[in-house]
């Protein structure tokens, strides 16, 4: 941060030059670099500033402030008490808004559940007194044949084998297609693995 005196100032143009003992040349300063100050600069003011080089190679003062002159407070700065009141108000309104939103969602859920229950109760349940006959059971057995799982399966474990050539017995193959993933031993999906394997 440099320190210097405002050597010249053109009020109508909004710029001037700062003379600093630490810099070889006077530094250009524009009014926009002091817009946060509570008054406009005047010749003889002590200016604190940093130097930036412009694309044309010339330098200008940035991040400036006038010694002894108050800065205008931004809304987010701590020294300004008004934002605190606004923040509290915003907090209260946002809290009430959240409560209102939750209440609205709860009311909509209650309404939807109530409507669903009313709709469900208005439907007459279909009750059939038909009993299954022996013919029905026979047809069921044909459509859904029973899969016989060998009792002695305690020695069989899923170990990644997938093919009939890897099986030691038909019982093991049956265990694998019923209990292990990704097996490729029942091409026609009839529950009978390795039907074409002459070893079994």
Question: Describe it for me?
Answer:
The chain contains three helices and five strands, in the order E-E-E-E-E-H-H-H. Mean pLDDT is 79; it is low at 76-81. The protein is 30% helix and 17% strand. Among the domains are: 2-66, Nucleic acid-binding proteins (OB fold (Dihydrolipoamide Acetyltransferase, E2P)), CATH 2.40.50; 140-200, no CATH class. The chain has 200 residues and is an alpha+beta fold. It has helices at residues 82-122, 134-143, 170-179; strands at residues 2-10, 15-19, 27-30, 46-53, 59-66.
List the defining traits of the structure above.
200 residues, alpha+beta, OB fold (Dihydrolipoamide Acetyltransferase, E2P), five-stranded antiparallel β-sheet, 5 strands, transmembrane, Cold shock domain-containing protein
